[in-house]
Amino acid sequence: MRKNGDGTATWTWAVKNPINNYNIIPYIGRYVNFKDQMKGEKGVLDLDYWVLDYNLEKAKKHFEVVKPMVTCFESWMGPYPFYEDSYKLVDAPHLGMEHQSAVAYGNKYGMGYLGKDLSGSGWGLKFDFIIIHESGHEWFANNISSKDIADMWIHESFTNYSETMFTECQFGKKAGSEYVIGTRKNIANDIPIIGVYGVNEEGSGDMYYKGGNITHHPAGD
After folding, report:
1. Number of domains making up the chain
2. Are strands 31-40 and 43-52 parallel, antiparallel or unpaired?
3. Over the stretch 72-93, which tens digit does the pLDDT of each residue have?
4. Model pLDDT for residues 111-133, shown as the tens digit of each residue
5. Beta strands of 14-57 (E only): which ranges?
6. Mapped to the 3 state alphabet, what secondary structure does 50-96 carry?
7. Band (220; pLDDT cuts 50, 70, 90)
8. Is 14 within the bounds of a domain?
9. What stretch of H or E contains 9?
10. By residue range, what is the domain housing residue 196?
């Protein structure tokens, strides 16, 4: 941050890792910042939170899930991909988005998906869907991506399954299975999951729930 001497200041935000341009977006508001750290698989990971000033106290409590979440995801998927750029959550005016190393958050500091359990199993109300899902994209979408949006299932199928990974990690294998099986009611079987190549067309939204269930596929289900 550089003070300009006229009552204004200039802030520079930079990332050290390559980044997709759809992962870059500015937000303007009365933000306050608080920080933390955790010991991860690649060493010390900085945790950086940018929230609107009136959300500070509830954010400090609500964001405590980040440490166990990262520990869980690293145990399943390997080290968080962007240690050099830290992990961040940023208050946003929309529901959420997987902006690389600065996840946009707008789930109103509640559990589930705006208070709903997308699995209908009860387990989906035990965690904040947006924090878990959008952070899962750091591994799939931001670290491992597709050449064509027709293969967006690479982003969403595996990230959908990260919700199950977290549920199992926190609440046990049975809970994880009940969560992912519960999401099957959302499968539409409308069009193929893989879109048409070369024309900027994504496939069916089934890439989320069908993809997550195919990834799960435990014996006996």
Report:
1. 1
2. antiparallel
3. 999 999 999 999 999 999 999 9
4. 999 999 999 999 999 999 999 99
5. 31-40, 43-52
6. EEEHHHHHHHHHHHHHHHHHHHHHHHHHCCCCCHHHCEEEEECCCCE
7. very low
8. yes
9. strand 9-10
10. 2-216
